[in-house]
Amino acid sequence: MKRGYEESASTSFGPPQSRRKLDPQGDALFLEDDETTRNLARKVADHYSARTNQTLEEREASPIIHLKKLNNWIKSVLIHLYARRGDFVLDLACGKGGDLIKWDKAKIGYYVGIDIAEGSIEDCRTRYNGDADHHQRRKKFTFPARLICGDCFECRSRRKFLVRLDKVLEDDAPFDICSCQFALHYSWSTETRARRALANVSALLRPGGIFIGTMPDANVIVKKLREVEGLAFGNSVYWIRFGEEYSEKKFRFSNPFGIKYNFHLEDAVDCPECIVPFHVFKLLADEYDLELVFVKNFHEFVDEYFKKPEFTELMRRLGALGDGNKDNSTLSQDEWDVAYLYLAFVLRKRGQPDRTHRNNDNRGNKGQMQISKGDIRYVSSED
Ligand SMILES: C[S@@+](CC[C@H](N)C(=O)[O-])C[C@H]1O[C@@H](n2cnc3c(N)ncnc32)[C@H](O)[C@@H]1O
């Protein structure tokens, strides 16, 4: 199996620029009126909001159904490896709540989900309440939850007051685990946002707390771009297109933020995304006391964990490689090629866990077991 990193690409990007607009806490000292960045975030939010829930039949008919199941398997493995009974979980960019069942299986104690797309948060709410009609009715989740609609990489209002996520969640923190699945690259449009994302995670995690995530693998994307003649590549289920400004396939290494490309994945994604050079991400995370535990391209991840009996069995149950029945359908080569575009990472917040906090705090009564529309807190656009 191929290694997911290309040396030339990984060494091409320079270190992040100095904190021009940030104080040592990672707080913006002044707010740039960056319409482009805001429009990009809005575009992404509108795209995901517009995606309606699918019925089980529609889902099974998706051209990337096995890839979706493989992604679920990867997220389940990460959760299985790091979540502990009773954990407080922060799910950044939680989407429609597709991971709620995974967290329930891990017997967590509390869940906070935040997403910028109103439609997705509403779907997450109904799914949590057990009202969603797209899946079979299920028993209630065993953990209380809270949902927030907002930009988790920025959090400021139209009137330009800062509404920092770590302040919004002051009473809920510290969290044991923070998860950001298939979304952290949306923070990489500017250095300010990338830093804000990491500052939020660091401020909200307890010492020793874990940050798990999945995102596009910049090294693979850059490598594939350089392998083709034009500025686009893909297969029957996806395409990626870079703009003319990258016709030389060289990047401004002094500023590894805001390197945009358009990404289309059948039945899933159709919006602008940003390259996240992982070694820069690692350096930046380290500045916020988040040290790397591991990073693995999805191919490497599957290779390693599929060998473990408990995860082989989970793969069989999820059916990512087919269920062995019907038409014997399984993950196609084109879907497997898409998996190669992604990586999974785990970071740990520095410091020793405070073993007494569980006995001293009264966080057990947080959140609700039934969430009404009025319970959703909206931040960043209207506050
Ligand atoms: C590919 S989906 C992943 C959803 C979910 N994490 C999962 O794995 O099923 C990406 C999600 O990121 C959310 N998102 C993008 N930018 C965001 C931002 N700035 N703040 C909060 N959520 C954001 C989108 O609305 C969308 O729900």
From TrEMBL:
<keyword id="KW-0949">S-adenosyl-L-methionine</keyword>
<dbReference type="InterPro" id="IPR039753">
    <property type="entry name" value="RG7MT1"/>
</dbReference>
<dbReference type="GO" id="GO:0005634">
    <property type="term" value="C:nucleus"/>
</dbReference>
<dbReference type="InterPro" id="IPR029063">
    <property type="entry name" value="SAM-dependent_MTases_sf"/>
</dbReference>
<feature type="binding site">
    <location>
        <position position="93"/>
    </location>
    <ligand>
        <name>S-adenosyl-L-methionine</name>
    </ligand>
</feature>
<comment type="similarity">
    <text>Belongs to the class I-like SAM-binding methyltransferase superfamily. mRNA cap 0 methyltransferase family.</text>
</comment>
<feature type="site" description="mRNA cap binding">
    <location>
        <position position="273"/>
    </location>
</feature>
<dbReference type="GO" id="GO:0003723">
    <property type="term" value="F:RNA binding"/>
</dbReference>
<feature type="site" description="mRNA cap binding">
    <location>
        <position position="342"/>
    </location>
</feature>
<feature type="domain" description="MRNA cap 0 methyltransferase">
    <location>
        <begin position="62"/>
        <end position="350"/>
    </location>
</feature>
<dbReference type="InterPro" id="IPR004971">
    <property type="entry name" value="mRNA_G-N7_MeTrfase_dom"/>
</dbReference>
<feature type="binding site">
    <location>
        <position position="181"/>
    </location>
    <ligand>
        <name>S-adenosyl-L-methionine</name>
    </ligand>
</feature>
<keyword id="KW-0507">mRNA processing</keyword>
<keyword id="KW-0489">Methyltransferase</keyword>
<feature type="region of interest" description="Disordered">
    <location>
        <begin position="1"/>
        <end position="27"/>
    </location>
</feature>
<dbReference type="GO" id="GO:0004482">
    <property type="term" value="F:mRNA 5'-cap (guanine-N7-)-methyltransferase activity"/>
</dbReference>
<protein>
    <recommendedName>
        <fullName>mRNA cap guanine-N(7) methyltransferase</fullName>
        <ecNumber>2.1.1.56</ecNumber>
    </recommendedName>
</protein>
<feature type="binding site">
    <location>
        <position position="186"/>
    </location>
    <ligand>
        <name>S-adenosyl-L-methionine</name>
    </ligand>
</feature>
<feature type="site" description="mRNA cap binding">
    <location>
        <position position="102"/>
    </location>
</feature>
<keyword id="KW-0539">Nucleus</keyword>
<feature type="binding site">
    <location>
        <position position="115"/>
    </location>
    <ligand>
        <name>S-adenosyl-L-methionine</name>
    </ligand>
</feature>
<feature type="binding site">
    <location>
        <position position="151"/>
    </location>
    <ligand>
        <name>S-adenosyl-L-methionine</name>
    </ligand>
</feature>
<keyword id="KW-0506">mRNA capping</keyword>
<feature type="site" description="mRNA cap binding">
    <location>
        <position position="185"/>
    </location>
</feature>
<feature type="binding site">
    <location>
        <position position="75"/>
    </location>
    <ligand>
        <name>S-adenosyl-L-methionine</name>
    </ligand>
</feature>
<dbReference type="Pfam" id="PF03291">
    <property type="entry name" value="mRNA_G-N7_MeTrfase"/>
</dbReference>
<feature type="binding site">
    <location>
        <begin position="71"/>
        <end position="72"/>
    </location>
    <ligand>
        <name>mRNA</name>
    </ligand>
</feature>
<keyword id="KW-0694">RNA-binding</keyword>
<feature type="site" description="mRNA cap binding">
    <location>
        <position position="96"/>
    </location>
</feature>
<keyword id="KW-0808">Transferase</keyword>
<feature type="site" description="mRNA cap binding">
    <location>
        <position position="127"/>
    </location>
</feature>
<comment type="function">
    <text>mRNA-capping methyltransferase that methylates the N7 position of the added guanosine to the 5'-cap structure of mRNAs. Binds RNA containing 5'-terminal GpppC.</text>
</comment>
<dbReference type="InterPro" id="IPR016899">
    <property type="entry name" value="mRNA_G-N7_MeTrfase_euk"/>
</dbReference>
